């Protein structure tokens, strides 16, 4: 039975002369892969530009669970993300997010709150005129809530850090257990208080307020390195990201 749903393009791979294999995250069915025939004709219903990473689409498909590659019946743009694909620093962030999600959402089932979070985040970034240097850090931190390993504040007795309290932070952060603790864990995957404070700080940030928190280029790079390690500890086979090198050149 044909069904309509919203979808986010994660990546596209060329297959033959006029076909693409497109990985999408959909609102109704989670992660799906499609075989798509594309044409250069202006009258074609499936245009190649529709399948760029992070494009938001309305699609119509007949999902067959035992079929590895689904077929699209109809496709239309849901909302063009214009500045995200045209402003260089936004594009670098966007390509990183797209590659990150391609691996983080591998095998993800239907999860409407997660889909809404990802789409609204991208729409925020697309519309933001400035103050988005910390976007990818906040995005990754909050995404962990939907994937089941958002840091636990309660067990470590962490209070919301007040402004200026970072220097007094005295707790460690156990990356494996995703919790703050008062003593060094019995393994090497932990953060000292000086870096654990940044995790507590990130948990206070959102897109509207993140410009109030100032990080140097080196601090931002280190926080991203820690977040990627955190994801690798909680998501099996999470690889090195090729887009990371481009992102690291931003805001030097």
Explain what you see.
With 252 residues, the chain is α+β, with helices and mostly antiparallel strands. The chain folds into 2 domains: 3-79, Nucleic acid-binding proteins (OB fold (Dihydrolipoamide Acetyltransferase, E2P)), CATH 2.40.50; 83-248, de novo design (two linked rop proteins). Helices cover 31% and strands 21% of the residues. The chain is built from 6 helices and 8 strands. The strands form 2 sheets. Strands 1-2-3-5-4 form a 5-stranded mixed β-barrel. A 3-stranded antiparallel beta sheet has the order 7-6-8. Strand 4 and strand 5 (70-79) form a beta hairpin. Helix 2 runs antiparallel to helix 3 (135-147) and helix 3 runs parallel beside helix 5. The longest helix has 18 residues, at 217-234. The chain is globular.
The portion of residues forming beta strands comes to 15-25%
**CATH second-level architecture of the largest domain:** Up-down Bundle
What's the domain count? 2
Strands of the biggest beta sheet: in what spatial order?
1-2-3-5-4
CATH topology of the largest domain: de novo design (two linked rop proteins)
Radius of gyration: 20 Å
Query: What is the CATH C-level name of the largest domain?
Result: Mainly Alpha
Q: What's the short version?
A:
With 252 residues, the chain is α+β, with helices and mostly antiparallel strands. Helix content is 31%, strand content 21%.
């Amino acid at each position: 039975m044909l069904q309509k749903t919203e979808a986010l393009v994660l990546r596209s791979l060329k297959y033959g002369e006029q076909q693409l294999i497109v990985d999408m995250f959909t609102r109704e069915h989670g992660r799906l892969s499609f075989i798509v025939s594309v044409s250069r004709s202006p009258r074609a219903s499936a245009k190649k530009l529709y399948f760029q990473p992070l494009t938001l689409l309305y699609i119509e498909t007949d999902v067959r669970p035992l079929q590895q590659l689904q077929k699209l019946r109809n496709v239309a743009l849901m909302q063009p993300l214009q500045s995200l694909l045209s402003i260089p620093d936004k594009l670098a962030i966007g390509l990183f997010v797209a590659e990150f999600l391609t691996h983080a959402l591998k095998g993800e089932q239907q999860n409407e709150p997660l889909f809404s979070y990802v789409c609204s985040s991208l729409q925020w970034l697309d519309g933001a005129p400035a103050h988005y240097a910390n976007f990818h850090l906040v995005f990754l931190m909050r995404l962990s809530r939907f994937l089941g390993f958002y840091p636990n504040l309660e067990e470590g007795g962490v209070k919301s850090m007040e402004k200026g309290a970072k220097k007094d932070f005295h707790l460690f952060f156990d990356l494996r257990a995703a919790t703050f603790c008062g003593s060094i864990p019995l393994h090497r995957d932990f953060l000292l208080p000086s870096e654990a404070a940044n995790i507590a700080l990130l948990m206070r940030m959102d897109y509207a307020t993140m410009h109030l928190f100032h990080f140097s280029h080196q601090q931002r790079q280190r926080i991203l390195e820690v977040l990627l390690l955190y994801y690798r500890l909680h998501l099996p086979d999470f690889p090195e990201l090729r887009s990371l090198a481009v992102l690291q050149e931003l805001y030097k």
